[in-house]
Amino acid sequence: MLRVFRSKQKYATVRPKSEQPVRKDVPDNLWLRCESCAAMIYRKELQKTQHVCAQCGHHFRISAFERLQTVVDADSFEALAPLRAQNPLDFPAYEEKLQQARERTGLEDAVLIGTARVDGVRIVIGLIDFAFIGGSMGSVVGEQLVRGFELASSREVPVVIFSGGGGGARMHEGIFSLMQMAKTSQAVGRFRQTGQLFLSVLTHPTMGGIYASFASLGDIILAEPGALIGFAGPRIVAETTRQKLPDDFQTAEFALEHGMLDAIVSRSDMRTTVAKLLSYHV
Q1: DSSP category for residue 185
Q2: Phi and psi at residue 202, in whole multiples of 5°?
Q3: Which pTM does this prediction carry?
Q4: How far, in Å, CA of 218 to CA of 161, rounded?
Q5: CA-to-CA distance for 273 and 137, rounded, in angstroms?
Q6: Cα-flanking dihedrals φ and ψ of residue 64, to 5°?
Q7: Strand 31-33 to strand 263-264: parallel, antiparallel, or no bridges (unpaired)?
Q8: Which residues of 151-186 are buried (b: 16+ CB within 10 A; e: fewer)?
Q9: From the CB of residue 109, how many other CB atoms can be counted at a distance below 10 Å?
Q10: Domains of the chain: which residue ranges?
Q11: Distance (Å, rounded) from C-alpha 128 to C-alpha 111?
Q12: What is the layout of strands, in order, in the sheet containing 78-79?
C-alpha cells in the first residue's frame, strides 16, 4: 500500500565548530535618557559634550575625576595624603557602606583634594563627589578640606572647590559630622586673612551642611545651570512654611536672581571662567 501521508524524515545538520556563526556581544547601557527633556542620548556622544545634553543643556552629574579633567592642566594634579573614615558611633553597616563607596568611586572618601594648575596658575582644588554616600561631609571630608585651606595659606595660592554634596552632614557620624560645618567655616576665615582667592563652584546638588558652611563662603560663587542649591530640600520647606513655592525654587537660576550667586557658568565654559578669575588674583 502506497503511504502517501508518510511523514518526512528529519535530519539535524551539525556544523564544524569553525563554521558556526559568531555571536556578537552588544554592550549594555549604550544609551540613556535625559533627566530633563527625556531625549535618548548615545553615551559616547555625551562624553564629547562633557555630560551635557545637546538638546536641552541639562548638566548630568559627573565624578570628581571626570570634573578634574575638565578644569585643571593635564598631569598637574597632586593629591593630598589620603585619610580613612572610622566608625566612632558604631553605626550599623557603616564600614560596609564606606567600602562599597570606595570600590564604586575609586576615592577614599567623598572629597578629592590636592594641588594643581589651571592655565599655569597653581591652586589647591577640592571636588566633592556625590557618588560617595551622596557627597555627604563626614570627619574625613572636613579634615581634608581644612588641610587644603592650610596648605593654600602656607603656599599663598588660591583655593577652588567644586561642591556637589546633596547629603549635607553624614548622619552615620552624628555630631562628629556636624562639627565639620564649624571646622571648615573657621578654616575659610583663617584662609581669608592671607588675601588669597576662595572660588566656590556649586554643582548639582549642593545642599545641607555643605552649603550651610564652606560652600556659601566663597569670595566668588559660581554655579552650573539648573543646580539644586539650598539647606533643606524644597519638599521640606514647603511642608514647614505651608506655602506654594516657585517652580524654580532653590535652583541656580533662582539663587542668582536673589543675589546668592555671582554667575551661572556652563560646564563647557567653566575652565575658561575659572582661569580668567584666577588670573585677576595672582
Answers
A1: H
A2: -100, 120
A3: 0.85
A4: 9
A5: 27
A6: -60, -40
A7: unpaired
A8: bbbeeebbbbbbbbbbbbbbebbeebbbebbebbee
A9: 27
A10: 28-60, 61-279
A11: 5
A12: 78-79, 111-118, 121-128, 159-163, 198-202, 220-223, 263-264
Residue pointed to by grid coordinates 588674583: 281
Q: Is the peptide bond before 205 cis (omega within 30 degrees of 0)?
A: yes
Closest residue by Cα to residue 124 from 183, 173, 191: 191
Per-residue pLDDT of the chain (282 residues; tens, 9 = 90+): 455 555 555 555 555 555 555 555 545 678 888 888 888 988 888 888 888 888 888 888 899 999 999 999 999 999 999 999 999 999 999 999 999 999 999 999 999 999 999 999 999 999 999 999 999 999 999 999 999 999 999 999 999 999 988 778 899 999 999 999 999 999 999 999 999 999 999 999 999 889 999 999 999 999 999 999 988 767 777 777 777 776 777 889 999 999 999 999 999 999 999 999 999 988
Q: Which grid coordinates are listed for 57?
A: 543643556
| CATH number assigned to the domain covering 61-279 | 3.90.226.10
